[in-house]
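Continuing the batch. This is chain 6 of the set; chains 1 through 5 are on the previous pages. Same settings as before, nothing changed between runs. Recording input and output for traceability.
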Amino acid sequence: MRARHEISGTTPLAKRRALLHIASLSRSKHQLNMQVEVAVDIAATPQRVWEVIRDVERWPEWTASITSIQRLDRDAASLGSDTQARIRQPGLPTMVWKVTKFEPWRGFAWETRNWGAVTIGEHWITPSGRDSSRVELKVGIDGLLEPLFRPWLVRMTRKNMEMEAQGLKRRCESAQA
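Output for chain 6:
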């Protein structure tokens, strides 16, 4: 017998949101249906890479995958576990991202929830030799409609991640701060 959930709400939109919420509760937070990973080797120290990555409001200067980032947290001077940011990307709705995992000088993960889906973005730095680093970018998306849009999501996500990886490489390897 199927479990039945009664939805209270006066509008069809309220009922749809409630159904999406129920569907999201039935999934594990750490099991994401779609995952895309991009890695890039950078001829710069992990410290230099961290300096660039942690300054999220300047990302639009070096990656075309971000139009703007506005920090929403109180301590906008430093990236940390309570960081929240409003991010605009070409072709996507504006989303608020919240840092969920933070390791200074190593990287961070943040997530956003939009349209009944959860998206987790990760940025991790590892030393890969003298004065060089490897950065791994990971994005995972899970939601009720994700399977339907998966081909488009994978293409768009990979394109944005590759732009970010190459922009990060150029910025870190240049003398520009």
